[in-house]
Amino acid sequence: MSPPLRPTRPEPGSAPPGARKGGTRHDHIVEDIRSLIVDGRWPPGSQLPVETELAERYGVSRMTMNKALGQLARDGFLVRRKKSGTQVAQPRAESAVVAIVDIRDEVRRSGRAYRFHLLARRARPGREEDALLLGAAPGVGEVVWLQGLHLADDRPFCLETRLINPAIAEGAKAQDFTDLTPGGWLLGAVPWSVASHRVRAVNATAAEAKLLELAVGEACLEIVRRTQAAGEWVTGVRLLYPGSEHQLVANFGPEAGGGPGRG
Q: Which keywords accompany this UniProt record (predicted)?
């Protein structure tokens, strides 16, 4: 963990270090902190002092400091969490829009240590509420339902809620998924033929915010994925990422967009 950041308190009436002349003190603070992050002087994961201490050092009110930090968080430079305070954001993890990848690999590509924490797992009959993950309720058939938290450097990276069809994914009921992630096991054990994705922005509920260490209502990226094999559903999964730490990428040629020159 990097040592606490120590911005120099400006003289009363002056702009923070590195700020240009003109603009409000809010603008000066945002520009100064952004420069420190972009220049690498405040590296990813660095812990900022508490809001009141920063306000004192920059010679502004706590409200002004809060607004400046909030803007930097919305812009993706900072991550603000209830329990751990404010930190410099890690570089955003990337997922391909259509590829099915192991989240463990996503985290490791970003240079962070990966861990999966299984929150709950049980075999039960399918319910109407399962339609969110499967597109259609699985009727009376049995499902394996589980929820787990993917962590990067022991911090929440993604909340996973998954249904598995044990009639197709043989061996799913015997897996406890404490040492092997559900997605990793499925990729190696069950060939799939058709997959669908739904991607949207959502706001974290109180329960989700608590697990992801976010503020209630904070923006998240939701990916709902369904896979099939031989006309039968294999799995449905909802992946919920903190919006400030994740992005989707897609690479495609002119043939995918209707020809060259079309934006």
A: DNA-binding, Transcription, Transcription regulation
Q: What is the pLDDT of residue 132?
A: 76
Structural tokens at position 54: 């920063």
Query: Are 159 and 208 spatial neighbours (Cβ–Cβ below 8 Å)?
Result: yes
- Alpha helix locations (H) across the chain? 25-38, 51-58, 62-74, 103-109, 131-134, 182-189, 206-212
CATH number, position 43: 1.10.10.10
State the Cα torsion 165-171-176-178 to the nearest 10°. -100
Model pLDDT for residues 163-204, shown as the tens digit of each residue: 999 988 988 999 988 878 898 898 888 887 788 888 888 999
Residues 233 and 194 in one domain: yes
pLDDT in the model for residue 100:
66
Joined tokens for residue 38: 């972009």
Q: Domain containing 61: what range?
A: 25-88
Instruction: For residue 182, tell me if it sits in a domain.
Output: yes
Domain containing residue 166: CATH number: 3.40.1410.10
Ramachandran assignment for 127, one of left (phi > 0), alpha (psi -120 to 50 degrees), beta (any other): beta
Axis crossing angle, helix 25-38 with helix 62-74, rounded to the nearest 10: 50
Task: Tell me the pTM.
Answer: 0.62
Interatomic CA distance for residues 90 and 43, integer angstroms: 8
pLDDT digits (tens, 9 = 90+) for 130-167: 877 877 655 658 899 999 999 999 999 999 999 999 98
Residue 191, amino acid: P
Chain center to CA of 148: 14
Torsion of CA 60, 64, 69, 72, to 10 degrees: -110
